[in-house]
Design brief:
The structure is a single chain. The chain is mainly alpha-helical and 315 residues long. The chain contains 11 helices and 10 strands. The strands form 4 sheets. It has a 3-stranded mixed beta sheet with strand order 1-3-2, with no helix packed on it. It has a 3-stranded antiparallel beta sheet with strand order 6-9-10. The protein is globular and about 50 Å long.
């Protein structure tokens, strides 16, 4: 039997979930840990970090997409079956999560945020990692995303969920990849519309060969959050990537546009091959306001999965 223990001044009564005992911090522990956090100051520090890092790089890339991915991967391990996983605990700081293949390269984001943590030690890593994703989206021109504090850090990765809970880019065929995407997101409690909205996060950032084996951004404005990802999916002609910088492409299967400068993963392409997914791609390609509204709602839901927020007090 597993026991999840969060570091906090006091503990609530254990809650049994499908054979697992989850020991959650009491309401007073949450209140004490989050009441003293100056959220506006933390937000400002994160935004300044993104800007300063971008200026140092001076190559058109930034921490924007990496912070969104950090928040996403910290949260996307949740399972509604037993309530395990999720952003509470910030266990991605430790092995086994830190070294899981799906999290390759995220040490860059975690290391960068140490500067913010040092300046604002009162915020938990769990809250910091998720808030960094929220700030990244908003600073890139995306929607305002609701975010609550209350995640309590754990002392090790001993209670980390098993590997394989985050989505893979390719399962060998369009059919298998489509089934895989649904399996991953349905496990967390999302529907098809929410899946498409969340994958719209590919509006920002890029793939790095040294991390995932894949290469390139999803659009020409990788630091701007927009509905361009969906428009490009529908309007561009995507073909298998065969060359890179004049040499044969030896990486995993991916797709590129006619310029070879932007790409799509097999898991992106299923969004226009599957009729149920495609209808939402078409909606968001035409209506950015609808995409922003649905993304904000789904992303906020993702970041809160498995977090034992205090129940609302009755009137």
């Amino acid at each position: 039997m597993n026991v999840l223990r969060a570091r906090a001044p006091s503990m609530a009564m254990p809650v049994a979930v499908a054979g697992t005992i989850l020991l959650f911090p009491t309401e007073s522990a949450h209140a004490k840990s989050s009441a003293k956090v100056d959220v506006a100051a933390v937000r400002k520090s994160i935004a300044e970090l993104i800007e300063e890092d971008s200026e140092k790089r001076d190559d058109g890339t930034s921490l924007t997409g990496t912070f969104v991915r950090l928040a996403w991967h910290s949260s996307g391990t949740y399972s509604k079956v037993d309530g395990s996983g999720g952003s509470n605990g910030a266990r991605q700081r430790f092995n086994p999560e830190a070294s899981m293949g799906a999290n390759a390269g995220l040490h860059v984001a975690r290391d960068a945020l140490e500067k913010v943590k040092e300046k604002h030690p009162e915020i938990s890593y769990g809250d910091l990692y998720t808030l960094a994703g929220v700030v990244a989206v908003e600073e890139a021109g995306g929607p305002v995303i609701p975010h609550r504090l209350g995640r309590v850090d754990m002392d090790s990765g001993e209670t980390s969920p098993p590997d394989g809970r985050l989505p893979d880019a390719d399962k060998g065929s369009s059919k298998s990849t489509t089934s895989h995407v649904r399996e991953i997101f349905y496990r967390m409690g999302f529907n098809d519309q929410e899946i498409v909205a969340l994958l719209g996060a590919h509006a920002v950032g890029r793939c790095h060969t040294e991390a995932s084996g894949y290469w390139g951004p999803w659009n020409f404005s990788e630091n701007t959050f927009s509905n361009e990802y969906f428009r490009l999916l529908l309007e561009e002609r995507w073909s298998p990537k065969t060359t890179h910088n004049g040499k044969p492409w030896t990486g995993p299967d991916q797709f590129e546009d006619s310029t070879g400068q932007i790409m799509m993963l097999p898991s992106d392409m299923v969004l226009i091959h599957d009729p149920e997914f495609k209808k939402y791609v078409e909606l968001y390609a035409k209506d950015e306001d609808a995409f922003f509204r649905d993304f904000a709602k789904a992303f906020a839901k993702l970041l809160e999965l498995g977090v034992p927020f205090p129940a609302a007090k009755p009137w």
